[in-house]
From TrEMBL:
Pfam families: B12-binding_2 (PF02607), MerR_1 (PF13411). Residues 1-51 form the HTH merR-type domain. This is MerR family transcriptional regulator. InterPro entries: Cbl-bd_cap, Cobalamin-bd_sf, DNA-bd_dom_put_sf, MerR-type_HTH_dom, Meth_synthase_dom. One of its GO terms (molecular function) is DNA binding. Residues 70-101 are annotated as: Disordered. SMART domains: HTH_MERR. It comes from the Bacteria. The lineage of its organism: Bacteria, Bacillati, Actinomycetota, Actinomycetes, Pseudonocardiales.
Length: 308
């Protein structure tokens, strides 16, 4: 049992639970009280893992694993199936709180699959699931219905136990990669002057700017993205050099949402629409003439209307 658990990347206790509850146990008998996992047994366990990654509940995954045609054992295959990622970590380890499933409430199956893969630190599975979500549902739905629920569940876990920082970092990198892949290169933008996307000085949480850049680019809007913690003098220089049609300033944390950043933006010959986004601005005063933007869809619509 220990060898199979190591091979699958789950805890022995999880194997015993799957055997006891769902009948997914070893079928070969040896001397004494021990039973041996046959290759087909391991193949069924792999099917259960794949179903869990796609967001199925444990009962649904077990039903699928018992009913589905069983492929050859993993050891006999030169390449795994490209549409069926295999977990490499043990998010189902019931003996360690940081590895339990995230509390995702009523989140959809895609979100549950991404959550399980992220907790397992399986970046390949996370990226595969995010790519499938973007292709099927688009960037906005993937961000709102998949990424944000998982990020919120990870934040709640960290607030409760202090655990899961490594999971959040891995998920953020996977989301960043997925959003960059979903961002086309706009060679002939609809807007004559660009849109600048940047975090306010010292703000390092720039992840929400990536889906915004992706949606705008998909609509043919040209953007210049400057990322996290852009110093004020650099922001001022960028505005002067590009004469943008709009500037979006992101602040995740209230202590970084400084109205002085908006006031310090240089005046240009043509009007610059300034938008501030992120929960950091929710408690503070948003100086005129800047406009507050909230959710991704509304932000993309507002920026597009302002520049096109």
């Amino acid at each position: 049992m220990a060898a199979v658990a190591r091979r699958l990347g789950i805890a022995p206790a999880t194997l015993r639970t799957w055997d006891r509850r769902y009948g997914l146990g070893p079928s070969d008998h040896t001397t004494g009280r021990h039973r041996k996992y046959a290759p087909l047994d391991v193949a069924r366990l792999e099917l259960m893992q794949r179903a869990l990654l796609r967001g199925a509940s444990s009962a649904e995954a077990a039903k699928y694993a018992l009913a589905a045609p069983v492929p050859g054992p993993r050891a006999t295959r030169s390449h795994p199936s490209p549409d069926a990622p295999v977990l490499t970590g043990g998010e189902l380890d019931e003996g360690a709180a940081p590895r339990r499933d995230l509390d995702l409430g009523a989140a959809n199956r895609r979100a549950r699959g991404v959550g399980r893969a992220a907790v397992a630190l399986d970046s390949a599975a996370v990226q595969s699931l995010l790519a499938a979500a973007v292709e099927a549902d688009g960037v906005v739905a993937t961000w709102d219905d998949v990424v944000r629920p998982v990020m919120a569940a990870l934040a709640a876990r960290w607030a409760h136990s202090g655990a899961g920082v490594e999971v959040s970092h891995l998920l953020e990198e996977c989301v960043r990669t997925a959003m960059i892949r979903a961002t086309p290169v706009v060679t002939r933008p609809r807007n004559h002057r660009p849109v600048l996307l940047a975090c306010v000085p010292a703000e390092r949480h720039d992840l929400p700017l990536y889906p915004l850049a992706a949606v705008l680019a998909q609509r043919g809007v040209g953007v210049r993205q400057f990322g996290a913690a852009l110093p004020l003098d650099a922001l001022v220089a960028a505005v002067r050099r590009t004469a943008p049609a709009a500037v979006v300033l992101w602040a995740q944390l209230p202590r970084y949402a400084d109205p002085g950043v908006v006031v310090a933006l240089p005046r240009t010959r043509q009007q610059v629409r300034v938008f501030v986004g992120g929960p950091g601005w929710a408690r503070g005063v948003v100086p005129q003439p800047s406009e507050r933007i909230d959710d991704l869809a509304a932000a993309a619509d507002a920026v597009e209307r302002a520049v096109c």
